[in-house]
Amino acid sequence: MATSKQPVTVPTDASVEDFLAAVPDERRRADAERLCTILREVTGEPAVMWGPSIVGFGSYRYTYQSGRTGDWPLAGFSPRKQQLVVYLVGGFEERHASVLDRLGPHKTGKGCLYLKRLDDVDESSLRELIDRTVRVHKGVDRASKSRP
Length: 148
Hints:
Blueprint: H1 16-21, H2 26-43, E1 47-50, E2 54-57, E3 60-63, E4 69-72, E5 75-79, E6 84-87, H3 92-95, H4 97-103, E7 107-109, E8 112-115, H5 123-137
Antiparallel strand pairs: 1-2, 2-5, 3-4, 5-6, 6-8, 7-8
């Protein structure tokens, strides 16, 4: 059992293929498999399960202003019941507003991009958002110093 000092969302040996095959909705499953391919191509990293429901690619170490540190995927996603959740760099809404304008229908949250259907969005814009996220996490593009 995890305590407050042990993160639950860590890389596991669980099968990404089995996880995606178990997505109950056929359209969501197809979108998840396609998104997995896109993320693998853009990041150059293999897909790994992070916890029970996040497919992550690569990893980076973050440090909060409090000094707390942890690891998180460079980019990742989860095929939720209502939408695909793509995990990007925090603050991407402000930093990459022009790319989001081209993306198509979506919603955003803190570091999360919510997509109903992959066919409804511009794939090149999605790839650009993922690439920019990876670059920030690798330190190639500098993000705001106030964000981890």
